[in-house]
TrEMBL record:
<feature type="compositionally biased region" description="Polar residues">
    <location>
        <begin position="275"/>
        <end position="285"/>
    </location>
</feature>
<protein>
    <submittedName>
        <fullName>Auxin efflux carrier</fullName>
    </submittedName>
</protein>
<dbReference type="GO" id="GO:0055085">
    <property type="term" value="P:transmembrane transport"/>
</dbReference>
<feature type="region of interest" description="Disordered">
    <location>
        <begin position="265"/>
        <end position="310"/>
    </location>
</feature>
<keyword id="KW-0472">Membrane</keyword>
<dbReference type="InterPro" id="IPR004776">
    <property type="entry name" value="Mem_transp_PIN-like"/>
</dbReference>
<dbReference type="Pfam" id="PF03547">
    <property type="entry name" value="Mem_trans"/>
</dbReference>
<keyword id="KW-0812">Transmembrane</keyword>
<feature type="transmembrane region" description="Helical">
    <location>
        <begin position="104"/>
        <end position="129"/>
    </location>
</feature>
<keyword id="KW-1133">Transmembrane helix</keyword>
<dbReference type="GO" id="GO:0016020">
    <property type="term" value="C:membrane"/>
</dbReference>
<feature type="transmembrane region" description="Helical">
    <location>
        <begin position="480"/>
        <end position="501"/>
    </location>
</feature>
<feature type="region of interest" description="Disordered">
    <location>
        <begin position="211"/>
        <end position="253"/>
    </location>
</feature>
<feature type="transmembrane region" description="Helical">
    <location>
        <begin position="141"/>
        <end position="160"/>
    </location>
</feature>
<feature type="transmembrane region" description="Helical">
    <location>
        <begin position="322"/>
        <end position="344"/>
    </location>
</feature>
<feature type="transmembrane region" description="Helical">
    <location>
        <begin position="6"/>
        <end position="29"/>
    </location>
</feature>
<feature type="transmembrane region" description="Helical">
    <location>
        <begin position="70"/>
        <end position="92"/>
    </location>
</feature>
Amino acid sequence: MVSAGALVWISLRPLLRLVMCVTGGYAITKADIFPRVAAQGAGQIALNITIPCLMFSKMVPAFTSDNIGALGPLLLICVIYQALSVGIAWLTKQFFWVPHRFRYGILVAGGWANYGDIPTAVIMSITGASPFNGDSDQNLSVAYISVFILYYMMTFFPMGGNKVIAWDFKGPDVEPEEVKESVRLRRQFIFRGWPRALRQALLCRCQAHDEPDAENQTDEKMPSKTDLAADDDNDIHHHPRHGRHVSFSEETSSTAVLTDVDFTSAPPTEKLHSPQPSQTATQTLPYDGCGSRPLTPIAEDHPPSPSPVRRRWQKFCITARGVLKSLLTPASITILISFPIALIKPLKALFVEVDGYYMPSAPDGEPPLAFVTDFAEFMGAASVPLGLICLGSALARLNVPRSQWPHLPLGAIFSLAVGRMLLMPVFGVLVCEGLVNAGVISRDDKVLRFVCILFSCLPTATTQVFVTQVYSGTGSAEHLSAFLIPQYILMFLSMTALSAYTLQMLF
């Protein structure tokens, strides 16, 4: 049994290392020696080289036929966490005003968390030491993390999660006062309006039961045909109707308007409107040789438009091409390749030693492709520090002037921060323990339980900053900056507490 002080220190130590790395990236950015171009280049190196190497070096030795069944619970946890987080963001949007250019971005900020450098740094540090089993549990934890990363990449890019951010910048702008008034009316209806509406609905329903039969009432009040004819005759001779407007369908290409017409007079003369200028330029009304009615207009020759089936097929091809292009990233490809290599013993034995399977070794006594694993481990070791430095650089560029804080949506900012960093960990513990009691998650797999619970306490991904800068057209993400800063401040307190509680619960 580990003491409470030891649990707190075990939980706090990886966060201190994380803070030091993030502070380094923050400092060199503020000192103007790590410009934006360099940060973007470092991010590309981390995304396309170091992270794939880290995933490969950990997944291949960690996954076996015994623990591959954890994929199902991990994907289920991903879906549940995303649904809960989006629900928290949606409720925040309903009760507090959010800038018009962030009305959809807040849903993305709730639904997609930082599944990369932060949990990897913390979990690798905790599972690599006591009370866990050292390197074996560390490799297994990173293998489990890869499932979260793969889910993030598939839902955010190929499935269009990033396109939701673009919806914020479509349409005209709306003043904050109008948004505030709309939210105020919504809150008023939620807290005071719905009881009145429910009471009125019940009253109408009671009145409907008390009324006589609808058919009998119709028979009593329905006038006869003779009365209708007499009324129409009186209306025609004594009450002329004015202002009647009669419009024909667009297919007739003409409109007749009858204004101030007395129906006692002779019928008006029919009058054909002249065609529109565009129609006279492209259409003619040929007559047959006998001067009879004009024939059907001859339309100008145009190239045949594709059929609806062909248009749908073209749209599907474009969408599928975009999905494949987004999915075929180095990190996604590496993760997808690592699964069969880890599960097929002849392939796995080429990279690492496999118990019970013979594979001819290289001259140094290692598996034939062990040098690939060595390279992946060497490059993957740079993934976490490089990612944390880029995170510190991104936070250093989040500029929210103090003079603007009174004008910011503070209610939505702090509600989302509390929901993600304080409320979601509670949901995470309840969901994971419920799945353990239901037999979905193995009670003996403490690494899986620890990873699943810790992933409930993550702030919004900084990737949204870059995507927002692209879609905004101005290169700014001022609304998102204010929502990120409180989350990352609360993260150090909530993650320490959650890690200590989880370790106490597991051990």
